[in-house]
Batch of 3 targets.
Target 1
Amino acid sequence: MTPWVLRLLGANVFLYFVAPPGSRLFAQLALIPWAVPFRPWTVVTYMFLHGGLGHLFFNMLGLFFFGPRLERQLGSRHFLGLYLWSGLGGAAFSFLFARHAAVVGASGAVFGILLAFAYFWPREPILLWGVLPVQARWLVAAMAVMALWSGVTGTQAGVAHFAHLGGFAFGYAYLAWRRHRYLRQWRPMATPAATLAQAAARAAQGDPLKRWRAIRLDQLHILNREEVERLLAKAEREGVGALTPAERALLDRFAEGPAN
C-alpha cells in the first residue's frame, strides 16, 4: 500500500459514514452542476461521497488494485494530482452534459487512475470477475465506449456516465501535460569518452544483445523505456554494428542495473 492510496481510501470511507446518503451534509457536499457558482467546493467534495456501500466498494476496489503501482510509477505528488484532476474532469463533463442531476462518487477520479494504468502497462492482463483476462488497454477502450453509449442513450439511469468520460479525458490530458513538460526540460548529455570506450570493448566481447535483452523494461521511466525499446529493435533489425557508440553505451548503462 502506498501513502496516497491509503489516505484516499481512508478519506472516502470516512466521508461515507460522516455524510451518509440522504443526510443534510451529503446534500451540501454533493455536486449539482448548475449550482456550482453558489457551492464551488462541491467540484472537489463530490468525489468523496458515495450513494451506497456497493458504489463505495467498487470504486475503492479499483483504487486499491490500480493505485499503488501507479503511485510508485508517478510519485506521490503526481499521483494525487492525477486523481484530483481526473475527478475535476468528472465534474466538468457533468456540468456540460448533466447540469441538473446530483453527482457523487470517486468514479471519475478512479477512471483516470485506470486509464493511467493502461497508459503505462497497456498489455497488463486484468482478470474480469477473477476469471477472464483482458489487456488493460482493451478494458479501458471498452469502458469508454460503454460509458459513451450509456450516456447518449440514457441507459442505466442514475449512473454518471459522462463523469466517467470526464475522468478518462482529464486523466489523459494530465499525463500528456506531464510528458510534454518532461520532454521540454530534458537536454541530451554528451557521453564521456571513457564510457564510449567501455561500450566498444563490451561490444567486441560475446553477444551484447543477450545482455541488453535482459534489461528490466518494467522498471524504467516510460521515456527511457521507449528509447531502450527503439534501440533494441534497431539492433535486432540491423545488427549491433548499426548502433552508434553512444547508443551502445546507453544500453550498457541500463543493462548494469535498474535505473529511471
Target 2
Amino acid sequence: MKCRVCRGKAVIDLPRHNASFCPSCFDSYLMDQVWKAIDEFRMFHKSERILIAVSGGKDSLALWDILNRLGYSTIGFHLDLGIGDYSRESTEKTRKFAVDRNLPLHVESLTQEVGASVDSIADLTNRPPCSACGVSKRHLFNRAAKTMDCHVVATGHNLDDEASRLLGNILHWQDGYLEKQNPALPDEGSLVRKVKPLNRLTEKEMAAYAFLKGIDYVVHECPMSVNAKQLFYKKIMNEIEQESPGTKQAFYFGFLDRRSHFYPEKDESTPSFLCRECQSPSYTEICTFCRIRLKVSLAGRDPDSGARS
C-alpha cells in the first residue's frame, strides 16, 4: 500500500477518499481538513481565545493538540463527571496531556457544582444520563468561557458523531435540533459561539492521528452511554459506510448544503428571561441546569428519597 501523495509506505487507508497516506502526508491531510472547516464555517480567528472542551478521549485531546500546532490561543476545560474509575482516568489523562505540552487547563467537578455525579443526577431527576450530562456541560462550558474571557467553545465532535446525530434527528423529525445542527453556532447574547472543527474527519482518522502523535487517551466509552441511541445510529452509519464508502460525508455535508433550504435563516428568538438563580439566558424563570441543581438539593434533604445528601 503506497501513499497517494509521495508514493512512500502508507500506514492508513481512507476508502471514502480512495486514498492511502504515509504518516507525514496523513498529517498534512488532516491539518488541511481542520483548516478547511475553520475557514468554511468562519469558526474563529487567531486573535480569539478558544476554550477546548476536553473529555480525555481521543477527539478532544487531538483537537487541542491540532489547534495548538496551528497557533491558536487555547485553554482546556475538563469537567469531572464523577463516574467512578472512568472519570478518574479521564481526568488523569487530561491533566497529563496538559502538563506534558505545557498547556493551560481548568478542571471543575460536577459533584461540587450540582451536588451529585451524573449518574446520581439522572436518578434524582428522572432524566436519561446523557441528557443530564448534556445540560450540565452546556451550562458549565458557557460559564467557563465567559469567566476565562474566551470567545468560543470548541468541542471534538467528528464526522461520525455528526452523521449519526443527523440520522437520529431525521428519523424522529426533530426540527428544533435539525435547525441548529451546524458546526458553528453563533453567539447569542451571553451564550458564546460553539464550534466543531473536526466535523470533516472520521473517528478512524482521529484515532490514527492520536496514535501517530502518541496521545494517551481514554479508550472505552462512557459507561453511562451504553444504551444511548446515538451509539445505535453510529453503528448503522458504520454498516452503511462499510458497503458504500463516502456515505457519511455525502449524507452530512449534503444536509449542510441544503440546510438553508429546509430551514431558512431567520432572526433567532432570544431567551425571555435571565435565570433568577444563575443569571444565564433562559426561556423560563429558572434555567434547566438550575432546576436540576435544585431537584438534587431537595432530594438530598428528603430522608425518604434514598438519595445521598
Target 3
Amino acid sequence: MKIKLIRHATLWLEYGGVTFLIDPMFSGQGVNPPIVNTANSLNNPLVPLPEPVEQWLAPDAVLVTHLHQDHWDTAAAALLPHETPLLCQEGDQEKLAAQGFAGVTPVDEAAGTVYRGVTLRRTGGRHGTGEIGERMGKVSGFVFQATGEPSLYIAGDTIWCEEVKEALDTYRPEVLVLNAGGARFLEGGHITMDAVDVAEVCRYAPQAAVVAVHMDAINHCLVTRKHLKEHLQQQGLLERVRVPLDGEWV
C-alpha cells in the first residue's frame, strides 16, 4: 500500500493493485471564497496543488466520502472523465450521477462493496456536535481490505466519537488516515479532529499506524501541522503519527 497526500483530504491510494483517488479537490489556489462564519476570511484553497493536476485524472476509481466542496469540488467534477467509476456514501449517488458520471456505486455499510478484489465498507462519523453537527449532514469513513494488504481505515470528516470507536473495534485496521485540522466555525465546537482527538485515537488503537491529513489548506481548519506535531510531541505520541506534506508519499 502507498498513500500520497495531494492536498487537504485529497489522496492518491495504491492498494491491492488498484489506484483510488480519494476526495478530489482540484481548484486552484484562492479561486474559491472563504468558508463563512469562521475566524478568518482567506480565499480557498490556501495553497496550490503540489504538482500538475493532469497526473491524477486517470485513477481506476474515485472515492468521495461526502459532497462538501473541500472534498468534491466543481473543478474535480469538470476535469475527471465521466466514465470514471465513483464510489460514495448512500444518498450521494443521485447528485454525482446528475453531474454526468454514469458508474456511481454507493458503498453498503454491512455487506460492503468489492471493486477489483478490494473490499470497501462504509463506517459512520460525526461532523461536529449539536446543531452544527446536524447541519453539516451525513459523513462517512471507509475501510479497505484486500489479500496481502494491511487493512486501511479512512475516517473521513469526523470528530473522535462512538462511531469511530465502533469502526476501530469492528475492523481493527492496521493503518488509519485521520482528517485533522480542527475545522470550526465561530460558534460551536470543532467539526473535524483536532490535536486532542488525534491523540485519543492513537491511545485507543495502539496497534495502528496513523497518518494525519486535512491541514493548512482551508480557511476554517485552525489546527496546523505545526500545532499537531507540538501536541503529539508533548503527549509522547509523535513517533506514532505521520504528518505528510502536500505531494508526499507514505
